[in-house]
From TrEMBL:
Keyword Lyase: no
GO cellular component terms given for this protein: nucleus; Ste12p-Dig1p-Dig2p complex; Tec1p-Ste12p-Dig1p complex
Domain C2H2-type stretches: 18-47
Protein name as annotated: C2H2-type domain-containing protein
Protein's UniProt keywords contain Amino-acid biosynthesis: no
Length: 133
């Protein structure tokens, strides 16, 4: 057992697995980060997820930052994420306080406070990137 309380069985190379030792859980994982993520579900640590796609974040500020990658920015190369003009994205974020986004394969709604935070973050970032003269 290591200092995090993770158990690494050493018998047999092929069965090298990480086991969750919380309660009688006994779930097995191949990768430490998967075990860690799973353990968070026991400890009540909240995972944050983007309501526009399926990305998960362990920290709310990372999640807020991520919404910027859904903004259609002039002269930027298109990336894999679906992107919308800022106003359209704001509308979509606001709508998910009532309905999950139909394009999101893992539907989720957010609170109006969360939506307000996301929109505020997007607007301040937009103003920083494209200051008005
Ligand atoms: Zn577990
Ligand atoms: Zn996203």
């Amino acid at each position: 057992m290591d200092s995090n309380g993770n158990y690494y069985p050493t018998n047999g190379l092929s069965s090298k697995k990480l086991v969750c030792n919380i309660g009688h859980c006994d779930k097995k994982f191949q990768r430490p980060e998967h075990l860690k993520r799973h353990k968070d579900t026991h400890s009540g640590v909240q995972n944050f997820h983007c309501v526009m796609c399926t990305k998960d974040f362990q920290r709310n500020d990372n999640c807020l930052e991520h919404y910027w990658t859904h903004v259609q920015v002039p002269h930027h190369k298109p990336k894999r994420n679906p992107r919308w003009p800022l106003e359209e994205l704001e509308r979509r974020v606001q709508r998910t306080t009532r309905f999950p986004d139909p394009a999101n394969s893992r539907p989720a709604t957010i609170s109006t406070e969360e939506a307000a935070k996301i929109i505020e973050k997007l607007r301040s970032k937009w103003e920083k990137e494209f200051p008005r003269e």
